[in-house]
Structure formats: C-alpha cells, structure tokens
Predict the 3D structure of the following.
Amino acid sequence: MTREEIIQKFQNLNIWKSKDQRAVHKPLLVLYAIGKLLRGENRLISYADAEDDLRNLLKEFGPLKPNHRPQYPFWRLRNEKDRIWEIPDAHKIQEYIRKDGTSTGDARIDELRRYGVGGFPEPIAYQLQQQPQIAFEVVQNVLNAHFPFSYHSDILQTVGIVLPILQFQSRIPDFRENVLRAYNYSCAVCGFDVKLRNQPVALEASHIKWHQAGGPDTEVNGLALCSLHHKLFDRGVFTLSVKLEILVSEYAYGSVGFDEWLMKFHNQKINFPQRQAYHPHEDFIHWHLKEVFKWPEREKI
C-alpha cells in the first residue's frame, strides 16, 4: 500500500453532518489509535480498556453534551468504504444486533465491551509504524481538517504524539490584518496591545465560527484576542452573548489569574471594533455558543 493511498483513506473519513454541528468522534479515535502505534503498542485496542480514554477525549475536545458515546466511532469506523478499521470479532457482536433488532445497526455497549477489540488493518498499521512520516502527515491532516490550531498541541499531548515539526495551515493572509485593524490592534477582551518595533506581539485573529466548520475569513467572524484569551475562547472557557457580553463558563475555575483574566470581564461588553459593520455576526456567535462554549455560563456578578 503506497503512502498516497494511506493518506487518501484517512482524508475520506465519513463524518456525520447535521447543519453546522461538530462531530469529532472518528477523528479523535484515529489520533488516539495512531498515538498507540507510534509508541510501539499493539495495533488492536480493547474497547473496554480504551472507553474511559475516548470518553475523556470527547469531553475535552468535543462539544459539551449530556452524554458522550465513545462506542459509536469504535463500531462505526469499521463501516468506512476504504476499510481503515476492523473488529475481528464483529460477527459475534452482529449476532446480538440481529437479535436485538436495533434499527441503527449500532453495537450494544455491553457486547462491545466483551468482544470489541479493534484497530487499523495490519497493512495500514504496519506502514504507520514503519514509516512514521506517513503517520505524522495523517495526524496533521486530521488536526487541520477538524480542529483550530489552538487545539493541536493539547490534543497531541493527550494522545501522546510528538510531531517533529508542527505545520501551519496556509490561510488567507488578509484575515489577521483585517481583524486586528478592525479592533485597533488590541485584544477585544483585555485591551492588550503590546508592540515590538511597530508589530503587534501575542495578538491574534480568532475565528468565532471555526474555519473547519465553514466559518468565513471576514471581520464579522473574527475577534482580535491576545494569545491567552484566544486559547480560552477556542476551548470554550468563555463566549459572547448576542449583546456582545463576555460569558464565562461555569466549568471554569482557578486561583492565580482566574479573577484577573476571566471573572473580571464576566458580563462585561467586549471592546468594540471601530465600525459597527465589523461587529460579530449573530449567526457566528450562536454557533460558538452551541458548538464550543462549555455552557452554562456563570451567574451575573
């Protein structure tokens, strides 16, 4: 199997789509399994052993949901047309599916815990282990396709992958400059505006609706944020209301820096851009509230 064939197989992941909802189950399972291969572990993973790890990945890097179901990608990934995942004892699980008469065709979680040992087929696993550069390219492609750059290092650390060089995705160069100019080259939350020889330092243009979810490179989908608030915004620690007030998640807490860098701004308006035409669009705010923010917000101070 050639490098190009393997790369293409992972690029063709069949990701569930419903409007603009995020679906990161399969990408996270792929990254988790590649991490194990790169550490020299067996290509086959016991679902029972991996269940908590996969659930924690979904909690940390997926949308906030009442229940996370790591069994879905573990079972469904084997249905990919290019066969990048296999469960040798799938026939035993399918017997229970037929008896149960489930319309979705999903495995019952107790049977998956009993018989669910799965992983990449041997030819793919062998190539990923023997030629790590292929694995690194797959990892980078999966990250770029499903997560903003601010997530990458955290996900890699969690799944135990060390990339030799983090590659930046090429983007429309005007987006950063247009957003920073719209916000007068200062953070929309804290006002940070340090410059070095007339160049802004640690000031970034953040997408409200992620580029990976189809968010446009326009001022109304952007916020000028310092590096700290950019990371906190992308991770759902805070969001914006439609009135452009900063809302801090009830799940966020801390001692050093928490009050100074978060709670101080809770329920406060952002520092508005210089034109009303640049104000964040409601549609993009609603997307961030639903798909990224770790709701609910804290009570008003």
